[in-house]
Design brief:
Elements: H1 6-14, H2 34-38, E1 51-53, E2 77-84, H3 88-98, E3 108-112, H4 122-125, E4 133-136, H5 138-146, H6 150-156, E5 159-161, E6 163-168, E7 174-178, E8 187-191, H7 192-203, E9 209-213, E10 217-221, E11 234-238, E12 243-251, H8 258-262, E13 267-283, E14 291-297, E15 300-306, E16 311-319, H9 320-328, H10 331-343, H11 350-366, E17 381-384, E18 390-399, E19 403-404, E20 407-409, E21 415-416, H12 424-444, H13 452-479, H14 485-500, H15 502-512
Parallel strand pairs: 2-3, 2-12, 3-9, 6-14, 12-20
Antiparallel strand pairs: 1-13, 4-8, 5-8, 6-7, 10-11, 11-12, 13-16, 13-17, 13-18, 14-15, 15-16, 18-21, 19-20
Helix pairs in contact: 1-13, 1-15, 3-7, 3-12, 6-7, 11-14, 12-13
Subcellular location: Mitochondrion inner membrane
Subunit structure: Component of a multi-subunit COQ enzyme complex.
Organism: Stichopus japonicus
């Protein structure tokens, strides 16, 4: 899951981010390049040996060297836009472009390495759930609704949740999020496969979008820098040896993006010395199950996200060694470990409770009690879905630029974040909305869709949004990876203060929806 909530990240920024030493005023500068510059101040949590910075490198193999050759011969197919990567971001972009009336005469190609996904129905979904899910916010839902995919998702399955509770294993501090009526959804838990299936169904209805499955790149040639006339398209050679030219190629091909490498984009990235363990859990008792739970342990956050009345999805970030043990242990031992992680108080700092109590009494004077902020107990886990356990490494990655002449990056190809805030695909869908609008405006003005003058607006807008989010998530990871008394004290009181101030919480909920 790329997945938990920016509300938490924003809130934690207010509750002790200054202690992490990575935010500077430049993050909020009006300069288009300010967010880009600020990212240089991020540093890996562990040894510097873990960082891989390619700011001044072009990670291109000999066969991938950029060429200044002109377009291919007459047997080459032409498309206005070629999207490489058929995942959620790539599929959503293809749908978004294909649904625009102003682009009705444009040819769009989507290349997907994977096989054509089987059509999902309620019948063939069965009772088992995928262990890869996303928490889609209201803006992601809006995009999927506009391109016609959300109705298909609802017809398959998704689980809205109305409340979120986040708490610290080292103290009694916690925060809850919900809308005042306790009815409006905060977000929706959706399996990745369900989202892809809904996008595929919509792609099949678009006359100007062609999808090629089981198709990858074997080469890509870019025009000479400064040459942007009609004879300077991007040339792509596919694995099936066919040739394609295009005005604009979009890399939506994930964290190890080929398009990013072909384009020579610099990348800053590091590992977190952590893996995420995912699984589908069976709850001990059936309930409405409309609360998302997240607890910050010293070894990493653990989250339980509702799937239905009796099942939830687990995302547990921990050390590589611990993750390996969790994946290999017996089902019974795993269930015991999950319950222990949510309920154990061995990390509790008792001396902090007195201070927290005094501070809490003071906050009650400022803000009357709010019944919606009452602490709830997480459900107990009784079992796991067979074969649902898996793990994957965690890290941060950021392309120094999102665009170059005739190339744009979206989703994980441009930015990769820790899953603790659940913003991976929501950021990717934000890229889709922004890039689609930039392309539409270029078409309305009669401009070249691949010109750097048009594409720069996409990079500027998205980096101003994405870089601060990445910094907050990275800082939050650091802040909650320590038992240092000063850090625990700062984050605990900050958590209490934020939870007590309703206007601040409501502002954070609104921020996380954008």
């Amino acid at each position: 899951m790329q997945n938990f909530f920016l509300i938490t990240a924003n809130m934690m920024a207010l509750s002790g981010l200054q202690h992490c030493g990575i935010l500077t005023a430049r993050a909020f500068s009006s300069s288009p390049t300010a967010p880009f510059s600020v990212l240089h101040h991020l540093r890996p949590i562990s040894s510097s040996k873990k960082i891989v910075c390619t700011c001044h490198q072009k990670q291109i193999s000999p066969r991938q060297q950029l060429s200044t050759d002109g377009p291919s011969g007459s047997d080459t197919a032409f498309y206005d836009v070629v999207i490489v990567g058929g995942g959620m971001a790539g599929g959503a972009l293809a749908c978004a472009l294909g649904n625009e009336a102003v682009l009705a005469d444009k040819k769009i190609l989507l290349l997907d390495r994977a096989k054509r996904p089987s059509k999902l129905t309620r019948e063939n979904l069965g009772s088992d759930y995928s262990n890869r899910v996303c928490a889609l916010n209201s803006q992601s839902k809006k995009l999927l609704s506009e391109i016609g995919a959300w109705s298909a998702i609802e017809n398959l399955r998704c689980k809205p949740f109305h409340r979120m509770q986040v708490w610290d294993a080292c103290s009694d501090s916690m925060i809850t999020f919900n809308h005042p009526d306790l009815v409006q959804e905060l977000a929706y838990i959706v399996e990745n496969d369900v989202t892809v299936s809904a996008l595929t169904e919509q792609l099949n209805t678009l006359h100007n979008v062609e999808v090629k499955y089981e198709t990858g790149l074997s080469n890509l040639k870019l025009p000479m820098v400064g040459r942007m006339d009609q004879n300077s398209w991007v040339n792509l050679t596919l694995k099936d040896r066919s040739n394609v030219t295009t005005r604009l190629v979009v890399g939506a091909d994930g964290a190890n993006s080929e398009i990013r490498k072909y384009g020579g984009f610099g990348v800053t990235r590091w590992t977190y010395d952590q893996s995420a363990v995912v699984a589908t859990l069976h709850l001990a008792e059936e309930t409405e199950n409309h609360v998302a739970w997240q607890r910050f342990l010293p070894t990493g956050p653990i989250a339980m996200l509702p799937l239905n009345g009796s099942q939830s999805s687990l995302v547990w970030s921990t050390s590589h060694e611990a993750a390996k043990k969790l994946v290999l242990m017996s089902d019974d031992d795993f269930v015991e470990a999950v319950n222990h992680a949510f309920w154990d108080d061995s990390h509790h700092v008792a001396s902090l409770d007195v201070v927290s109590q005094i501070f809490g009494d003071f906050l009650k004077v400022l803000q009357p009690d709010d019944s919606s902020s009452v602490r709830q107990l997480p459900p107990s886990v009784s079992g796991i879905q067979t074969g649902s356990r898996a793990k994957f490494p965690l890290g941060l990655g950021h392309a120094m630029h999102y665009v170059k002449p005739r190339i744009a990056l979206v989703g994980d190809a441009a930015h990769r974040v820790h899953p603790l805030a659940g913003q991976g695909i929501n950021l990717g869908f934000g890229d889709v909305v922004c890039l689609k609008e930039v392309i539409v405006q270029s078409a309305l003005r009669g401009e070249d869709l691949g010109s750097i003058g048009s594409l720069t607006e996409y990079e500027t807008q998205r980096q101003r949004h994405v870089v601060p989010v990445m910094m907050v998530i990275d800082a939050l990871k650091r802040l909650y990876s320590t038992t240092n008394p000063a850090a625990v004290f700062a984050r605990s009181l900050g958590l209490q203060a934020t939870n007590a101030l309703k206007p601040l919480k409501e502002a954070l909920i609104g921020s996380a929806s954008r």
